[in-house]
Structure to design on (275 residues):
């Protein structure tokens, strides 16, 4: 007979009077699971820390939040996305109204633990004291749940968090697609619309190597990006490919195309390019 493992057998949360479970479900426009796969921070910060139209303070400072996202194919299965402590609450209406601190000791479980629970209540935020014993572990995935398939060079659009996932977990489809490609790429600052055009040539050891430096440093050695904080880059940068070429194409061709895109998008005048 299969023994039941409760979620709290993994988390060992003790002061349950100050723990809330957040059940993220579709808002009628977006599937939270798809949002999470595209950008975990959009769920863990944007959705989790949102105050509704009433502006009610549902999460007092010091509350521990357990974030769950409903799986699309079963209404009783939920993916654990974060365990975080509320550190600040501020006035907000239909907007983010809290600051939080992700609890690093649980990071190995994020995106991997699937929980079984039938949420009979209409509310999506519930105190753990009354329900935590009913949350059981359905399975623990060997890898973080994510859409691993490479979508084609023309469809690449990655947040910093997504790019970091690709690099850190060495996603096979992505690694195979990027490691031997030269390219002209685009970085978009989604906070202000500013652009940066760059290139990956044999000098930079191809696109995979070039983008790996962005994950490690944020700025990749580019002077126009060094003025930004790493935190800003992690929160707002988005990476896409304008043109890709196989390794046999001459580097001068790539550099000429990079210059063309800088002029076309006017990134020297209005973006982050300085050369």
């Amino acid at each position: 007979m299969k023994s039941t493992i409760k979620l709290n057998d993994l988390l060992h949360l003790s002061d349950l009077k100050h723990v809330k479970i957040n059940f993220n479900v579709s808002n009628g426009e977006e599937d939270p699971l798809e949002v999470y796969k595209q950008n975990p921070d959009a769920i863990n910060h944007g959705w989790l820390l949102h105050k509704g139209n009433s502006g009610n303070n549902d999460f007092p400072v010091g509350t521990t939040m357990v974030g769950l996202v409903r799986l699309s194919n079963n209404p009783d299965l939920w993916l654990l996305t974060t365990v975080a402590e509320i550190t600040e609450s501020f006035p907000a209406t239909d907007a983010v109204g809290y600051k939080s601190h992700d609890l690093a000791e649980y990071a190995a479980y994020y995106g991997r633990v699937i929980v079984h629970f039938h949420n009979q209540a209409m509310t999506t935020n519930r105190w753990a004291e009354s329900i935590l014993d009913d949350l059981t572990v359905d399975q623990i995935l060997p890898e973080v749940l994510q859409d691993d398939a490479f979508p084609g060079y023309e469809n690449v659009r990655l947040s910093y968090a997504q790019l970091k996932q690709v690099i850190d977990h060495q996603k096979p489809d992505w690694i195979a697609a990027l490691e031997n490609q030269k390219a002209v790429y685009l970085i978009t600052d989604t906070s202000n619309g500013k652009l940066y055009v760059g290139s990956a040539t044999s000098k930079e050891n191809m696109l995979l190597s070039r983008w790996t430096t962005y994950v490690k440093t944020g700025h990749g050695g580019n002077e126009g990006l060094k003025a930004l904080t790493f935190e800003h880059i992690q929160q707002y940068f988005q990476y896409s490919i304008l043109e890709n070429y196989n390794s046999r194409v001459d580097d001068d061709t790539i550099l000429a195309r990079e210059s063309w895109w800088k002029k076309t998008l006017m990134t020297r005048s209005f973006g982050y390019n300085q050369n």
The longest strand covers residues 77-89. The mean pLDDT is 91. The first helix runs from residue 7 to 11.
